[in-house]
């Protein structure tokens, strides 16, 4: 066996070890195209995330793209190790979801040196990072999602007597992640021109239902009787918050207005039941958009630096009777 063969075998062993350690899986497509894509996913913290992994895997499978999927179990170091194993294995394209914005420079330099194009899927890296280290971003416009959430609140409160204060709490997503940073920014920037809106407090719920519940309990304890609005950065945390409110004898959606982000089936059901007032859609169905770019990059073509999926807003005022099942 030559040096290249040995290197590939070592890389394969490394990847297999990684699969074993992090519960990764490798999908076998029906008819392979020869294209090999390495996909580092951050974990399975929400129904959204599980839908996102499935979307990427199914899109690859439909196209006969071989996909190596690594689940980092919410740890940035594991994601970095997975990307390194993809480089060692000399995949054609690397796709990864940056769990937080910072800390990717070294590993992306290594991918660049190896000549492997990189696609950022779902989350963005810090805008201070050299943009030549990745080829494209495919995912939501998180800032716009925050703006849409705030605009709903502006409409909802338009009829209140002048100068009525609107006291808001936030359950924010994973600290230093692009959705948490940008959703908050878009939301607060839109409300800051109107002095009626007061941000009482923010607690990180890490995009998890359990931490959303804990966080809401804490917010209710700190601000008893004062909270008018909850802005939850995702549906999973909103489910936890609803449980905390109900346990405290409050009526979610009535005593406290709830705005959430994602659009999972369960959130739409809660919107219909009047327990959530507005859900900003953030679609996890990015698989085809990502694989379109992976195929183009592998063929040496130019790709757009940013691709946003189409997204909408669901509110308590909408007729949702004809809305098809969400699929996540
Ligand atoms: O990065 C997207 C966010 O991550 C989704 O809003 C959330 O549900 C997920 O965990």
What does this structure look like?
This protein has a 7-stranded mixed β-sheet, sandwiched between helices. It has 2 domains: 165 residues, Response regulator (Rossmann fold), CATH 3.40.50.2300; 141 residues, Response regulator (Rossmann fold), CATH 3.40.50. It is of the alpha/beta class. The chain contains 10 helices and 13 strands. The N and C termini lie far apart (46 Å). It is elongated, with a radius of gyration of 21 Å. The N terminus is likely disordered. Strand 10, helix 9 and strand 11 form a beta-alpha-beta unit. The longest helix has 20 residues.
Put the structure in a nutshell.
This protein has about 325 residues and is an alpha/beta fold.
Radius of gyration: 21 Å
Tell the overall outline: elongated
Strand count: 13
CATH hierarchy class name of the largest domain = Alpha Beta
Low-confidence stretches: 1-6, 20-29
Which superfamily, in CATH terms, is the homologous superfamily of the largest domain?
Response regulator
* Main sheet makeup: 7 strands, mixed
Oligomer: single chain
Strand order of the largest sheet: 1-3-2-4-5-6-12
Order of helices and strands: HEEHEHEHEEHEHEHEHEHEHEE
What fold name goes in the CATH topology slot of the largest domain?
Rossmann fold
């Amino acid at each position: 066996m030559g040096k290249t063969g040995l290197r590939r075998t070592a890389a394969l062993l490394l990847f297999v070890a990684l699969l074993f350690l992090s519960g990764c899986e490798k999908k076998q497509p029906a008819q392979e195209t020869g294209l090999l894509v390495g996909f580092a996913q951050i974990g399975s913290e929400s129904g959204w995330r599980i839908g996102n992994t499935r979307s990427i895997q199914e899109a690859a499978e439909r196209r006969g793209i071989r996909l190596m999927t690594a689940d980092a179990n919410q740890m940035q170091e594991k994601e970095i190790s997975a990307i390194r194993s993809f480089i060692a294995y000399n995949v054609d394209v690397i796709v990864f979801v940056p769990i937080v914005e910072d800390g990717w420079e070294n590993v992306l330099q290594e991918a660049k040196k190896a000549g492997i194009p990189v696609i950022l899927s779902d989350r963005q890296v810090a805008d201070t990072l050299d943009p030549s280290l990745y080829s494209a971003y495919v995912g939501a416009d998180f800032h716009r999602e925050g703006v849409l959430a705030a605009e709903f609140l502006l409409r909802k409160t338009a009829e209140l007597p002048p100068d009525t204060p609107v006291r808001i709490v936030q359950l924010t997503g994973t600290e230093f992640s692009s959705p948490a940073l940008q959703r908050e920014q878009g939301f607060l920037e839109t409300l800051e021109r109107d002095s009626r809106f007061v941000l009482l407090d923010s607690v990180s719920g890490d995009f998890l239902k359990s931490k959303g519940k804990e966080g809401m309990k804490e917010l209710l304890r700190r601000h008893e009787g004062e909270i008018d609005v909850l802005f939850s950065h995702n549906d999973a945390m909103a489910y936890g918050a609803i449980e905390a409110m109900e346990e405290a004898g409050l009526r979610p959606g009535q005593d406290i207005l709830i705005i959430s982000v994602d659009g999972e089936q369960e959130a739409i059901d809660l919107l219909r039941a009047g327990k959530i007032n507005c859900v900003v859609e953030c679609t996890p169905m990015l698989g085809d958009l990502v694989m379109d770019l992976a195929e183009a990059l592998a063929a040496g073509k130019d790709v757009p630096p940013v691709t946003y999926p189409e997204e909408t807003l669901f509110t308590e005022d909408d007729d949702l009777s004809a809305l098809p099942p969400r699929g996540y």
